[in-house]
From TrEMBL:
Naturally occurring in which organism (per UniProt): Methylomonas rivi
Gene3D superfamilies: helix hairpin bin, Hsp33 domain, HSP33 redox switch-like
Keyword annotations of the record: Chaperone, Cytoplasm, Disulfide bond, Redox-active center, Zinc
Protein name from the UniProt record: Hsp33 family molecular chaperone HslO
Pfam families on file: HSP33 (PF01430)
Lineage per the UniProt record: Bacteria, Pseudomonadati, Pseudomonadota, Gammaproteobacteria, Methylococcales
């Protein structure tokens, strides 16, 4: 049975290099079914972003979520991918009805940027930002790590209609790092093909790429699509708009309807709900029906 919807960490035992592998199937299918993907190129960018955020979130120890936001002024307006420390993922894409570019830079246009945010339960949020001047997300992230980590880091990201997958390699911070080792491993990884990473299990892929090295492979971590939206969170957002804004909407219609952009869940708030929100912003999530 193929390894799907899981992350595998691995370590080159005799070299100062660590790595990760991820392949998403059902979680990728569920994440994209709520998004308007105008063509395969846009679909691939969302899949690559989801694979990337899983790989990156696994490099740090935290309780919370890592959010990758990609923004631009071109036909592709925004990509958002999120992964929690428990392996729950979700994503969204916003674009024009037609997107003509085939690579990330062409889709985003000039002035695109990538924002990585770590929201931790027990620490202040951390945010890193890098301008997008490369054609692929993997290349953008290489630049990001060069600027922020000073550790050699590479990602290989692929996605089609069935799978989203990625490979991550990073040198370990040691005093006697041999750059020749890193360069050799990087060169071997550069031979990877889209067909290989989308179809081979982790052990098969690592053997094909690095069969001359001793690689320790760790147990898989499951990944699943799960949206953390809730009536309480949506209600809090509405309450922040203020009474006059909400009452002006209710003058035009009997209820305020809010759709979650990540999972398509629909939340309804009538006049009584809104009054409860304004007088007591922390509502019980079950006070009114939610339709999925």
């Amino acid at each position: 049975m193929k390894q799907q919807d899981c992350l595998r960490r691995f370590l080159f035992e005799e070299l100062g290099v660590r790595g990760e592998w991820v392949r998403l199937e059902q979680s990728w299918r569920q994440a994209r079914q709520h998004q308007v993907l105008v063509n395969h190129a846009v679909e691939s960018q969302l899949g690559q972003a989801l694979a990337a955020v899983v790989l990156l979130s696994a490099t740090i120890k935290f309780k919370g979520a890592m959010i990758m936001q990609i923004q631009g002024g071109g036909e592709l307006k925004a990509l958002v991918a999120q992964a929690t420390h428990e392996g729950k993922i979700r994503g969204l894409v916003r674009s024009e009805d037609q997107v003509s570019g085939n690579d990330l830079l062409a889709m985003l246009g000039e002035g695109g940027r990538l924002v990585l945010t770590v929201e931790s339960e027990n620490a202040e949020p951390y945010q890193g930002i890098v301008g997008i001047a490369e054609r692929s997300l993997a290349a953008v992230l290489k630049t990001y790590f060069t600027q922020s980590e000073q550790l050699d880091t590479r990602l290989w990201l692929f996605a089609d209609t069935e799978y989203a997958a990625g490979l991550f390699l990073q040198e370990l911070p040691t005093d006697n790092q041999d750059k020749a080792d890193w360069q050799r491993i990087e060169m071997l990884a550069d031979t990877i093909t889209e067909a290989e990473i989308l179809t081979l299990d982790c052990e098969q892929l690592l053997h094909r790429l690095f069969h001359e090295d001793k690689v320790r492979l760790y147990d898989p971590q499951p990944i699943e699509f799960k949206c953390n939206c809730s009536r309480q969170k949506i209600g809090g957002t509405l309450a922040a708009l203020g009474r006059s804004e909400l009452e002006s909407v209710l003058q035009e219609r009997e209820t305020i309807e809010v759709d979650c952009q990540f999972c398509g869940a629909q939340y309804y708030f009538d006049r009584i709900d809104v009054e409860n929100l304004l007088s007591n912003p922390v509502m019980n999530e079950d006070e009114s029906p939610t339709r999925h």
